[in-house]
Amino acid sequence: MSQPLRQEGESEHLIGRAEIERLKNFSETELDGLPFGAIRLDREGTILSFNQAEADLSGRKKENVLGKNFFADVAPCTNVQAFAGKFREGVAKGTLHTVFPYVFDYKMDPRNVWVTLFYSNETGTAWVFVRDDRRLARPD
């Protein structure tokens, strides 16, 4: 991709609205080229897209998670107010764009990440973007 996936001056873990607007039109191949996890969910949390970076980071195969509920079947450690609660509240309100640190620890070594949740009224879908602390670029 020719443009960076964050605005100059933004925190390295933040994915801004402009980037998300571009990403929601990406093909599966383009999503697989992203350097961070990208998971697209329907309003109930069913996984519609699961990119290669997230498959690599989570150790899960895309074909084994598509069509499953993210919060109940794939990452039950996220089925808490601090994560799934934010998702459900944002989807119900029709507005969701939040960033927060989280630790994924379901059937894996704990993984410190930054999560961006975003809901698009236009598509009726939500995005979960996951940036692993170990994969973040560090300032010089």
Distance between the termini: 23 Å
CATH topological fold name: Beta-Lactamase
The proportion of residues in beta strands is 25-35%
- Extract low-pLDDT stretches: 1-13, 135-140
CATH superfamily: PAS domain
User: Per CATH, which architecture?
Assistant: 2-Layer Sandwich
- The computed structural class is alpha+beta
CATH C-level label: Alpha Beta
Number of domains: 1
Q: What are its keywords?
A:
single chain, 140 residues, Beta-Lactamase, 5-stranded antiparallel beta sheet, 6 helices, disordered N terminus, disordered C terminus
Describe this structure in words.
It is a single chain. The protein is α+β, with helices and mostly antiparallel strands. It has a single domain, classed as Beta-Lactamase (2-Layer Sandwich). Helices cover 29% and strands 26% of the residues. The protein has 6 helices and 5 strands. It has a 5-stranded antiparallel beta sheet with strand order 2-1-5-4-3. Strand 4 and strand 5 form a beta hairpin. The longest helix is centred in the middle third of the chain and has 13 residues. The radius of gyration is 14 Å and the shape is globular. The two termini are 23 Å apart. The N terminus and C terminus are likely disordered.
